């Protein structure tokens, strides 16, 4: 570059023809650097996932969130209700709120309050949106049936009480594909798998864990379990054979609690702490856990990382207890295998977190995840979306997802049969099927309570109700569903026509 010549003048003189060879070299260098940048920056449609908290009037306010010292999420969500474990005097209780019941929750609002000690964990049944299980410090597991329109009075009578643990029950988890199969894990270091339909303990895994069980996760088809224990071991268990298939000692060397979950491809994702108390995440092959596929250090915070996994998009969301952020990672077959995407941050720390199943999301807004963040006195929904310009259904964001229908009955699974989840499409918006009441058949009942007069009257009324009216209701429901589907389609077409008219007007100008 000549003396007294600015850089812009120099570039101009290069490209107007004074130094053609230099111009050619600069162009090639620019193309090469752009190609290298494309290789370094991994392409992903989830790189720009946008998280946003809802407005204050859409939150659930004045809720006394539980203060019990237990590292569970304290919140469970499904397409109908949000359930939150709360502080309760004289026992354990939790709220069950219809999703649309936002705003301030009255102190006299009815609760589910059958436990005699604090509730530690709750889980909605994936096959019936009205059934929820709870585990408590009173050493019992209870299964509840919530009325279709939510609670009008406090519910203290469960459908069934499951008794078998000798210490507090800290984990409850429904089988992903078999109807009425429920797992519970207690501080007595044992895992019990129940047939809720009969109220019986079918499988007891009592000699596999020498210390407290931190987490239990079902595999995609429910044939295997993955557990994280205080002895720093991660175990893969075949529950029906009562056999440990694989295990890893010191998966994370730190003494603080670990978490382990199954991924859709059978691999295992864990969170824990290093020897220097730094938070870590790791990926493992379930059939060979000698060495991790990858390990990543995160930060030096001391909050336990709760992982939430979406098998459809292969994204893991990490919510630390006491953190004010949600980090999310995409898991792929390419190194480094666990790819950091982004972090959603707010000012307030979280006491717990609920995660909405895919069929409860708004597909029209390109919503790929929804969290229910618990503060000290409220619950705040957080919506994760992928920005898209088109109003049409985004097939790449919504592959077929697990529906509410079970693949197996409880007896089939206990007898050794396996079945993957029955998938449904979200293209036309999900329309919930009629939920069947949970029927419990007690096998050894010594005495039965006589039916009250009111119950007899209601039974008679059920029998004399005219059959044609039920058929008419079903027919009306079917017509309304079809009408809603057609209306949504017309709205989409109107938007598309308006957009095309705008484009034509621009071209004409």
Automatic annotation (TrEMBL):
GO terms for molecular function: actin filament binding. Residues 39-103 form the DUF1899 domain. WD repeats lie at residues 112-154, 162-204, 206-247. Keywords: Actin-binding, Coiled coil, Cytoplasm, Cytoskeleton, Membrane, Phosphoprotein, Repeat, Transmembrane, Transmembrane helix, WD repeat. InterPro entries: Coronin, DUF1899, WD40/YVTN_repeat-like_dom_sf, WD40_repeat_CS, WD40_repeat_dom_sf, WD40_rpt. The chain crosses the membrane at residues 19-37. Signal peptide: none annotated. It is found in: Cytoplasm, Cytoskeleton, Stress fiber. Residues 469-503 form a coiled coil. Gene3D superfamilies: YVTN repeat-like/Quinoprotein amine dehydrogenase. GO terms for biological process: actin filament organization; cell migration. PANTHER family: CORONIN (PTHR10856), CORONIN-1B (PTHR10856:SF24). Regulates leading edge dynamics and cell motility in fibroblasts. May be involved in cytokinesis and signal transduction. Forms homooligomers, but does not form complexes with the other coronins. Interacts with Arp2/3 complex components, including ACTR2, ARPC1B and ARPC2. Binds actin. This is Coronin.
């Amino acid at each position: 570059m000549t003396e007294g010549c600015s850089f812009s003048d120099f570039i101009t003189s290069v490209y107007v023809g004074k130094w053609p060879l230099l111009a050619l070299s600069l162009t090639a260098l620019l193309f090469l650097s752009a190609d290298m940048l494309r290789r370094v920056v991994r392409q992903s449609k989830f790189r720009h996932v946008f998280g946003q908290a809802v407005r204050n009037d859409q939150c659930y306010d004045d809720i006394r969130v539980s203060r019990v010292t237990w590292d569970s999420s304290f919140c469970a969500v499904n397409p109908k209700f949000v359930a939150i474990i709360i502080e309760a005097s004289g026992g354990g209780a939790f709220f069950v709120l219809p999703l649309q019941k936002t705003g301030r929750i009255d102190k006299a609002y009815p609760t589910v309050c059958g436990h005699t000690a604090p509730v530690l964990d709750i889980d909605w049944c994936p096959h019936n949106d009205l059934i929820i299980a709870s585990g408590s410090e009173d050493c019992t597991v209870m299964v509840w049936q919530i009325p279709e329109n939510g609670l009008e009075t406090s519910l203290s009578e469960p459908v069934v009480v499951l008794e078998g643990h000798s210490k507090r029950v800290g984990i409850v988890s429904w089988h992903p594909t078999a109807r009425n199969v429920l797992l519970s894990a207690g501080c007595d270091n044992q895992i019990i798998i129940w047939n809720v339909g009969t109220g019986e303990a079918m499988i007891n895994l009592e000699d596999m864990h020498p210390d407290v069980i931190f987490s239990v996760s079902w595999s995609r088809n429910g044939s295997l379990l993955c557990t994280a224990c205080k002895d720093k071991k991660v175990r893969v268990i075949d529950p029906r054979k009562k056999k440990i298939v694989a295990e890893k000692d010191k998966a994370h060397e730190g003494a603080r609690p670990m978490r382990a979950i199954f991924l859709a491809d059978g691999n295992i994702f864990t969170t824990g702490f290093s020897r220097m108390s730094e938070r870590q995440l790791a990926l493992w092959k379930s059939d060979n856990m000698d060495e991790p596929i990858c390990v990543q250090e995160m930060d030096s915070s001391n909050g336990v990382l709760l992982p939430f996994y979406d098998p459809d998009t292969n994204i893991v969301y990490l919510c630390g207890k006491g953190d004010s952020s949600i980090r999310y990672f995409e898991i792929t077959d390419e190194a480094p295998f666990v790819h950091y995407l982004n972090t959603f941050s707010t000012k307030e720390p979280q006491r717990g977190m609920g995660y909405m199943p895919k069929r409860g999301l708004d597909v029209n807004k390109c919503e790929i995840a929804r969290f229910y963040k618990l503060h000290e006195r409220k619950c705040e929904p957080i919506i994760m979306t992928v920005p898209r310009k088109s109003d049409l259904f985004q097939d790449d964001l919504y592959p077929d997802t697990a529906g509410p229908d079970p693949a197996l009955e409880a007896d089939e699974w206990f007898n050794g049969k396996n079945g993957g989840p029955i998938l449904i499409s979200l293209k036309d918006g999900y329309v919930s099927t009629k939920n069947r009441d949970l029927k419990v058949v007690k096998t050894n009942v010594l005495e039965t309570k006589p039916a009250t007069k009111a119950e007899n009257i209601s039974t008679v009324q059920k029998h004399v109700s005219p059959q044609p009216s039920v058929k008419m209701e079903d027919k009306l429901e079917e017509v309304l569903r079809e009408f809603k589907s057609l209306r949504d389609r017309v709205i989409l077409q109107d938007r598309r026509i308006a957009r095309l008219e705008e484009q034509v007007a621009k071209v004409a100008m």
